[in-house]
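REVIEWER CHECKLIST
Item 1: Sequence provided? yes
Item 2: Single chain? yes
Item 3: Sequence as submitted:
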Amino acid sequence: MRVFVTIALILSGQALFLTAFASDDDPGRLVSCLLVVDGQQYIREKCRFRPIGNDGSFQIMAGNGKYFAQLHIRSRGIGIGYWNEEPYAGHAHTDLGELTREEACWVNERASVCAW
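Item 4: Structure as written out by the authors:
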């Protein structure tokens, strides 16, 4: 069974649709994760980490699947983040904005997405 997560990025007025998928054969690897949005911690535990493509983009997902976030690389040290916001939602529909890399984290004034 495959779980498909589709998100839309609006870049220069054009919609670019990205699909990240994970199968039962690829559960990702367990790493320590942190997801903080608007001052609230949603993930602070071991979680599943999956690369998305070959450019350093990735997804983290809580062990129970309740919350997850994706980071899509734009350029070196800069990415765009999304998360599901609604518990157990199967799509990363909420924009976290542009994030910059600080060691194992990608951060801005609103959010932190970390995996180490």
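Item 5: Key structural point noted by reviewer: The chain has one domain: 28-115.
Item 6: Recommendation: ____
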